[in-house]
Amino acid sequence: MEQAVDRRRLSAAQELAQRAGVDALLVTPGPDLTYLTGYRAIALERLTCLVLPATGDPVLVAPGLEVAAASASPLGQLGISIRGWAETDDPYGIVGELSGGAGVVALSDSMAAGAVLRLRDAMPAARQQLAGPILRELRMIKSAAEVEHLRQAGRAIDRVHEQVPELLWPGRTEREVGDDIAEAIIEAGHVTVDFVIVASGPNGASPHHELSDRRLEIGDTVVVDIGGTMPSGYCSDSTRTYAIGYAPDDFLAFYGVLQDAQRLAVESVRPDVTAESVDAVARSMIAEAGYGDRFIHRTGHGIGLETHEDPYIVEGNVELLRQGMVFSVEPGIYVSGQYGARIEDIVVVTETGVDSLNNTTHDLVVVDPAFSS
Ligand code: ZN
Ligand code: ZN
Ligand code: ZN
Question: For the purposes of burial, counting CB atoms within 10 Å of the CB of 282, is it exposed (0-12), middle (13-18) or buried (19 or more)?
Fold first, then answer.
């Protein structure tokens, strides 16, 4: 597996920590540890924690039995020293010692509460804060290699959407369709299926509807929102809306509005515009057409090693978009009790504009029930 990790991420994190007045970053297994070291450790009850001082060398504190795995991972190739601990040692005390015991420590956002509180007890003189505000500055701006990983993820999930029409026919349940889609997600090259939403008919009005035993009917519209994680660790996420046989006329009217809103929002993406302005483009178009109160979620979220990460494309986020940011643009319109629709692409901010990582058609894909069963 190709690794995009190099020592520069660690030194960049140290620089940001210094600037933030933080003495050490403490990072347990999760996306931050993967990002900084390439080590995809499993979160266990035994403590694994990277101690990254603002100045000086990083040390990974790990259970003795995990030392071999850690040193065989990209973390070992980065030359990070590993301090194994034995079953009778106090790993929290070791982390405390290595981080100097006092000052300000920043903890990875995904650290378990149990570890947070034990670290607090091990270093009562230290002040704890979140590492997210520091590390987001790095993780939010994807390198060319990361963009390439996300592009491959986009291509993989596009291949799944291309197969979805063959799986939709009247009489099948959402769950049956969802199981087939999950299989296709793996066949397309993902290592895990992160979510499969198949929301048919009135279920489409719930943006995060889970698979149910509702059977598909002719005249249903079906929102399919799917994603997985690639061997690179990077995630895919794409939504398309389908119709079985035909779609009701009033649905077609609002679907056209949604298509325009999504396209114009994507086209508005470029460096130095705010995140909230992209949300406003989609939202104002949908509102002008009279569906404003039916677009009930933010326009998008960043994506990378996690499906949802910074930056969020939402009103109130005045962060300026920068080259290398990757996020979804996914407006939706939901009519309670009847149906819903959403179109979602992952896009990357380029030097001068935007590039879409999902490229299947945005048109409503009408499945001919005669050709399926
Ligand atoms: Zn979502
Ligand atoms: Zn999404
Ligand atoms: Zn999605």
Answer: buried
Q: Does residue 2 surpass a pLDDT of 50?
A: no
Residues with CB under 5 A from ligand 2 (ion): 237, 328
End-to-end distance of the chain based on CA atoms, in angstroms? 40
Least distant ligand from the CA of 300: 2
Using a 10 angstrom Cβ sphere, with 0-12 exposed, 13-18 middle and 19 or more buried, the burial of residue 26 is buried
Interatomic CA distance for residues 43 and 361, integer angstroms: 39
At residue 348, the 3 state secondary structure works out as strand
- pLDDT higher than threshold 80 for residue 5: no
The Å distance, Cα 75 to ligand 2 centre, comes to 30
Percent of the chain surpassing pLDDT 70? 98
Q: pLDDT tens-digit profile of 300-318?
A: 999 999 999 999 999 999 9
Q: What pLDDT digit, counting tens, does each position of 89-146 carry?
A: 999 999 999 998 889 999 999 999 999 999 999 999 999 999 999 999 999 999 999 9
Q: What pLDDT, in 10s, does the model give residues 46-62?
A: 999 999 999 999 999 99
DSSP codes of every residue in 163-223: HHHHH--TT-BHHHHHHHHHHHHHHTT-SEEEEEEEEEGGGGGSTTPPP-SPBP-TT-EEE
Domains of the chain as residue ranges with CATH: 2-139 (3.40.350.10), 144-367 (3.90.230.10)
**Centroid of ligand 1 to alpha carbon of 299 (angstroms):** 10
pTM for this one?
0.94
Q: How far apart are CA 212 and CA 339, in angstroms?
A: 15
Cα–ligand 3 centroid distance for 185 (angstroms): 14
Ligand nearest to the CA of 195: 3
Give me ligand 3 centre to Cα 142, in Å: 20
**How many angstroms separate the alpha carbon of residue 195 from the centre of ligand 1?**
10
| CA 226–ligand 3 middle distance (angstroms) | 6
Report, as an integer, the average pLDDT of 167-180. 96
Q: How far is the CA of 308 from the centre of ligand 2 (A)?
A: 7
